[in-house]
Design goal:
Layout: H1 3-6, E1 12-16, H2 21-34, H3 41-54, E2 58-60, E3 63-64, E4 67-70, E5 77-87, E6 97-106, H4 110-124, H5 127-135, H6 139-147
Parallel strand pairs: 1-5, 3-6, 4-6
Antiparallel strand pairs: 2-3, 5-6
Helix pairs in contact: 2-3
Length: 151
């Protein structure tokens, strides 16, 4: 599934303030919950936090990819935030995180979940894309970068 099927402009935010991993996950949960009337932000937060307890979703290079399966969801959805500063996220490379892509998938979508995670991890491994995401001046620019098939 391509990123433009997961993400909307409304779920793409810049200048998000969070001074901890917990606060960043709470903010991301609220954004994701707004995307589906069946979801509550606390429910999304609990699912993301439960996944984090299994191991950090901090990929390295300042990127985190919090994700969870949700029984209420009918289709996968995502949200992207660029933080105003970097936070400790227990990433594999111990680098602080400033870019986060939150992903929710239906509970029974195991293969789709893995495929989307692989696609996102591949995209975020591109140093030029990460640099453009950090330098972009608007939400629209970031959304265009993420939803473009060229990146």
């Amino acid at each position: 599934m391509h990123v433009d099927k997961l993400l909307t402009l409304e779920r793409t935010l810049t200048q998000v303030h969070a001074n901890s991993k917990k606060k960043a996950l709470e903010t991301l949960s609220g954004i994701l919950a707004e995307g589906d009337p069946e979801l509550g932000s606390q429910q999304v937060f609990d699912a993301l936090l439960a996944r984090e307890r299994l191991g950090s979703t901090g990929l390295g290079e300042g990127i985190a990819l919090p994700h969870a399966r949700m029984p209420e969801l009918k289709q996968a959805m995502g949200a992207f935030v660029r933080l105003t500063g970097s936070i400790d996220f227990d990433a594999l490379d111990h680098a602080p995180v400033d870019l986060m892509f939150g992903l929710l998938v239906p509970e029974d979508s195991t293969n789709e979940h893995l495929e989307i995670l692989a696609e996102l991890a591949g995209r975020f491994s591109d140093g030029k894309l990460r640099e453009k995401l950090r330098e972009s001046s608007s939400t629209e620019e970031i959304y265009a970068l993420l939803s473009s098939s060229e990146n």
